[in-house]
Amino acid sequence: MNKKIKNVIGLTALILMALSAFMPFIISSRVVNSQSPQLNPAASYSFPWASSYPTFGVTTGSGPIVPNNWNVFGVGERSDDIPYEFIFETLGIADFMTGQVYPWLATNWTFTDNNTNFIVYLRHGVYFYYNGTLPNGTQGQILWPFSAKDVVATYQDYFKVYGNPFNVTVTEVNPYEVIFHFGKPNVQYALYDLLEQFIVPWEQYANLTNPAAAVIPIPVGTGPYYLAKATETQATFYRNPYYWIPGRPFISTFTYYVGISNAQAYGLLAKGTAQWGGTGSTGSTPFSQLFTYANPQYYHGMASIGNGSGGQPSFLWINFARLNYWPWNETWFRYALSLALNRTQISLGSQYGIPTGAPPTPADFLPSPMEEIWLNSTIIQEAHQVDQYNLTEAIQILESHGLKIINGKLSFPNGTPLPTYTMINYQGFSDTYATTQLIAEDLAQIGLQINVVSETPSQMFGPALDGGQYDLIYWITNAYSPYYVWESAFIPPLIPGTDQPNVTALETIGVYVYSDFGRWIPPKEFIDLWIQAGDTTNVTLLKQIYNKMAAILIKDLPAIPVVFDAYPRYEYEDQYYIGFSTPQFFYTWNVEPWIGGNLLMLMNLAPRPPGMSNAQEVAYTQAAWQDLLAFIYGKANTATPPSLLAMLQPSTSTVTQTSTSTSTVTTTSASTSVTTTTSMSTTSVTSTVSTSSGLSTGVIAGIIVVIIVIIAVVAYVVVRRR
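^ Extracellular solute-binding protein family 5, sequence as received from the core. Prediction below:
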């Protein structure tokens, strides 16, 4: 065989080998993505009457953006996770206050085999998208299909970064199904940790040795927006043209402004630069002096709900590792301290001058929406007996146990004053610091001497809160469900492999703990009940467990119930944009830009059509929410029917599409309502997404055959010439 023939044969073999190596990728990619990417109808929407509106702006107090590293497990996300909320999505979205979990990138999930298997079914027709400067410096688009492979890569990194307390393994069953197998079952962890994690593309995150340290130069996510540009203090986002919710989002472009201070954030809101904010209070200063003065009709601020409902779980922790002596270790003493707190005045002084901006904390330590879902009326009534202000009764309780107020100082029975105690916070957190100061002032009325100290955040969240180097601290904790509130606040670290509290860690100042910051050693029954709560999907049983746990908290009072920090604490304007969750129609608690799952509200925001009345605004918001739910639960094939688009038009306008065709819709009057279940749901929901098919595997195979034939012809010609 001559050299030329050998070369041709060698070339042919190499090409065939390359094709054989590449073909599985082609085939697998087409199986994973049996549908071609479809442009979202929202990409062609144009509302001409909104062309003069200000570009939608978002602001809140947070750390700087890290513009050159978009690692969801890295320092940038920990510094400021708000930009990530618009780019990346989770399998499910949990309502911050009620714990209801909505299907998102997952359409459904179920628990099997005594809750050791958590099976998650994934949504079809979803793509990771990016459009801009690529890592090699060129301009281009990225469009990667979402599949189980991405989910597996995500959680392999997740467990490396955050640990794996329940020995979970994640396995791909098929491109749209994964199984999380639990070595030790925990339903709450599955619902409120695993489902709430940003899903990332395997192309960027697979096989990372140290995911937290990896540099991810561009963010490629499935979310409704992609990053256009970013600095440390500002980021611009454009609508993802291939987003999977048909017709959403309505807002095409927005800018996120980092609020370095509350004053700066409120300045942006007052000037109309930002239309949506999540900025905390500056103490007693009302919204009217912070920003709504600039446009009282359309600028709004919310601190909890007007009737006192809401609030983010917050506690006055007592460090039992330091104060585990009489009278601090007596329930009656902690009860007396609770009665000495004037919660209305604390709210007025710390939350915008609103009497119920900081709702009173009951002895079950749960905000009222959560109480109403999980606890019975008897337990709720008992829990709220401790949040009543009664200074006279507080003093009587103290004196009945031998304590005395001598020269304004609370003293032991022998006349020795109790020592001065230190209560810490950070002055830069103006709302919680104001609460801390007001607590100290109230407790001085019963002679308790408290010195308020402002620590730096690094000292407060490290050596102090985690390391136990404090006497008293007022701070916030998690929400979603009683399980998570109580875990964070009162469940101590357990000895590995047991259900026993690590007493040595709790009692040793300087040893860091990341829950039970008061270092309370709970009764074993409390820990056992908490473990049972994590191991059941039975809502009736879960309510029974939670009521028993609440009764223990009411009896022992391991922390001082004061007030909840305001939640929601957010700002919005509806002169130019509508769809917000408002007191007129409050459909989700995920309303702050920094809160995970704010897409539940963002997907409904839209330019306000000229002439829209307040009643029409509420009707639109109700319809938009109802249509969104219908789609994500698989009850409709679009989230944006013509009836909804009609509500976004002036009576003489039409929806204009930037493509070659236009569609005209008739304005109609709509007034709809929606009812949602606020308890934990384990009911199966299925969803079908219909899109047109792309190239089939057969077509691809045909192309490959043609290439092989061409190679064979070339080889034949070469031989003939020889």
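Residues 314-556 form a domain with the Dipeptide-binding Protein; domain 3 fold (CATH 3.10.105.10).
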